[in-house]
Design a protein that fits this description.
It is an enzyme of class 3 (hydrolase). This protein is of the alpha+beta class and 108 residues long. The chain has helices at 4-7, 31-34, 67-72, 85-93; strands at residues 13-18, 21-26, 41-47, 57-62, 98-100.
Length: 108
């Protein structure tokens, strides 16, 4: 029998395989597990355990873009620009979300 803590985690955690590398994407806000309204602007942390990552990346996710903002800015993942694979993976859960790396250079 599986423990209730494993069936319903207290904090959101995703095990990822991005570009063939295993990593962890997690949040520290327990409301993300139980309250969909918390999915407006929130923070996630990414850790790959790879040698090139010296610290956990702090990401800010915004799931609500405004139509008037989209007209003024180019899609960060347009064909002319390369989009980090991690951002593409995040958008499989939150389609159209913008991802801010908060000053860290995207390394995935």
């Amino acid at each position: 029998q599986v423990s209730p803590g494993l069936r319903t985690p207290r904090f959101p955690v995703w095990l990822c395989s991005v570009l063939g590398r295993h990593s962890v994407l997690f949040g520290t806000d327990s409301r993300l597990v139980s309250d969909w309204k918390s999915e407006r602007i929130f923070h996630l942390y990414f850790y790959s355990g790879q040698q090139e990552q010296t610290q956990t990346a702090h990401l800010t996710i915004d799931t609500h873009s405004h139509h008037w903002e989209e007209a003024q800015r180019e899609d960060p993942c347009s064909p002319r620009k390369r989009c980090p694979a991690l951002e593409m993976a995040i958008r499989t859960k939150w389609e159209g979300a913008t991802v801010s790396w908060n000053g860290t250079d995207p390394f995935f």
